[in-house]
Structure prediction request, 276 residues.
Amino acid sequence: MKQSNTLNLLFYIMLFSMSTIYVNFSIAEEPPMSIIKKIYVEGEAEGTDAEIRVNDIPVSYLKAGSDVKSVLVEINLLSGTNTLSIIPTGKVGSVITRLVAYKVGEWVDGRGGETLLVLKTEKGKAVTGTVKLSSDRPEWEWLTADIVTDKTSHKEAIEFAKSYYKSLKEGDTKVMTAALLPLHTDESKLDPEVTLEMRNKAFSEDFTGVITDKNWKWDDINDIRFHAKPVANGRLYELLREDGTELFRTNQKDKLDRIFFSTMIGRKAGKWQIYR
Prediction:
């Protein structure tokens, strides 16, 4: 295996790896939330790209040979049993990822923190591990969304995706804030000091003038090839373009200038909205 430029996670391989193709360790309980503030997923891939999921929700896409990537996942964690999954895209290489809790003020560096779960996989094998977390976590909005894996729901999802993209392109903040209600509600559960009203106002203000901003480029939705991928155990769809990027984004020539928007949708009480 080609040696990575960053070996931050190899320490954990040495501690936890065994002779099997992949490893799955679970630590029963994380330390008290009064001590541990935030939980991240950290991962590194060699020889293959990989998708990382928490409770079947994609949280990170690892590129082969890239630096260790740390992603805050508090908003996707459940009271009780949680799952962490690695889904490699290739049949060679290896991927290692861990669920880690960092104390308030502790540097998030890919090697510190309190490890809650470590997974390793090789040769394209997908693997899932479980960890039990404390029971004081919020009840997220997506947990009561409909199961939408049937053909009719898939068709509805595609129609909503096209309609919402047009609203983004036109800068219709009324439509957007209504669609973002589940996501903003969950964000306020995680951080109650920022109320739902404050989030909606900030979003609307940030979007003011988008229509006339010549630096923001958009595609014609009818020219975009995209698909809706079931996630969250069939309760949400992730909307991705043919090139693997998010459907809801601007399209400046310089990829670094593009603006990306939340792209996981679900349905509740007949209404399609943005959940992640």
Residues 19 and 153 are 44 Å apart (CA to CA). The chain has two domains: 10-133, 141-274.
